[in-house]
Design a protein that fits this description.
This protein is of the alpha/beta class. It has one domain (about 5-195): Rossmann fold. It is built from six helices and seven strands; from the N terminus they run E-H-E-H-E-E-E-H-E-H-E-H-H. The longest helix is centred in the last third of the chain and has 19 residues, at about 155-175. It binds flavin mononucleotide. The site of flavin mononucleotide has 16 residues, from helix 1, strand 4 and strand 6.
């Protein structure tokens, strides 16, 4: 059974990115995919390059959890026109260990204007690490799309989250040509050459 890891890049109580991941988890479960949470990144310390080979235990745990899943969805907020620093910091700890190399990834950002800068930032840094971003989704104005408990109840958004999940799962379960098509569609938007990823398996 396919294993999908969920990475929440918001440390905010009542996070809308977390609420979006809750919808993703339900969609994935309906598709017969096993879902696991990668754990909080709140305690991941600031990146220290000399500690790459002997990282703090929480970083080792994050790497191990990522290595154990077939694909990951990262949902992170946009702060001041970039991805939330805590997520970028945690991603920096993965570079030396090549944890995301060839890992299929879905990138999601929920925020006031739809997270276009956060998504671009994530696609660039994950691609630089050799991760395969196969789909992205930005959700704007989340406060208008949730119920009183912060759960998404807007039908259009629920449909977008379903399709986002289906696209990632479908690409993972499809052929290498399917994955290359998806990857090309995403990275070409940012002038990243799909050839840098080599042969897709
Ligand atoms: C310091 C700060 C900076 C922000 N900068 C942006 C921004 O550049 N673009 C944007 O669309 N939203 C911005 N927002 C709004 C967040 O994207 C929004 O609060 C979002 O819901 C946060 O995700 P969360 O609910 O999962 O924590 C900012 C919020 C904060 C607190």
């Amino acid at each position: 059974m396919m294993e999908l890891g969920l990475w929440c890049g918001s440390l905010n109580e009542g996070s809308s990115n977390r609420a979006a991941l809750d919808v993703v988890a339900r969609s994935a479960t309906r598709l017969g995919v096993s879902v696991s949470d990668l754990g909080s990144i709140a305690e991941v310390p600031a990146f220290v390059p000399t500690q790459v080979d002997e990282p703090p235990p929480i970083v080792a745990q994050l790497r191990a959890r990522l290595e154990a899943v077939d694909a990951v969805i990262i949902a992170a907020p946009e702060y001041a026109a970039g991805v939330a620093g805590s997520t970028k910091n945690a991603l920096d700890w993965l570079v030396g260990a090549s944890t995301l190399y060839r890992k299929p990834v879905g990138v999601l950002s929920v925020g006031t204007t739809g997270g276009a800068f956060a998504i671009e930032h994530l696609v660039r840094t994950i691609s630089w690490q050799g991760g395969l971003v196969l789909t992205t989704l930005g959700i704007a104005a989340p406060k208008t799309k949730v119920d009183g408990d912060g759960r998404f109840d807007d039908e259009v958004t629920l449909g977008e989250l379903d399709r986002f999940t289906e696209t990632l799962v479908g690409a993972c379960q499809g052929t290498p040509a399917d994955r290359l098509d998806r990857l090309t569609a995403v990275v070409s938007r940012y002038d990243i050459d799909p050839a840098r990823f080599g042969q897709i398996r």
